[in-house]
Amino acid sequence: MRKAALALALIAAGGMALGHAGVKDERVMAWMHGMKSIAQATRTVALMARGEEAFDAEALADAADVLEAEHLRIPALFEVPTQDPVSEALPAIWETWDDFEAKSERGLEAVQQVRAATTLGELQEALGALNQSCRACHQIYRE
What is the mean pLDDT of residues 77-87? Predict the structure, then answer.
């Protein structure tokens, strides 16, 4: 069941190309899809953490699978400097690559915290760490 949910999430991300009209660079499209997948999985976690959806260990594991897969891809997706008129990525990514990689690693650590959450309190704390890691990167590396 979890593998099917992960596959559906990745297929859904593939359908998001329509939302990125005008992107010329395939690498930029790939990272946009990845970030969209992260946003969707984070939304699943947030709904549970805020009590808007019941705590569901299987759905949480599925979201963690997507988050982990995408976070593991981030350094490789951004490794080659590229710009696209539609991209919101800033050149600072490549100018301060070591910091970018470190922030990516902290994001992966936050994902592991999400994966390990077994209570609502733990999930809320993990969501805070995940949001903080996303914000730390986006504040510096995204328009």
Answer: 89
Return the pLDDT at 16. Answer: 43
| Cα–Cα distance, 81 to 97 (Å, whole number) | 10
CA torsion 42-111-70-77 (nearest 10°) is 120
Measured at the alpha carbon of residue 63, what is the angle toward residues 84 and 101, in degrees to the nearest 5?
45
- Is residue 65 within 8 Å of residue 35, measured between CB atoms? no
Tokens of 67: 């988050």
CB of 39 within 8 A of CB of 64?
Answer: no
Distance CA 77, CA 8 (A): 21
Give, in order, the Cα–Cα distances in Å from 64 to each of 12, 49, 59, 127.
16, 14, 9, 11
Rounded to two decimals, what is the model's pTM? 0.83
Amino acid, res. 74: I
Any residues with CB less than 8 A from the CB of 128 and at least 6 apart, and which?
none
Distances 126 to 45, 61, 67, 83 between C-alpha atoms, Å: 9, 13, 13, 33
| Tokens describing residue 7 | 């596959």
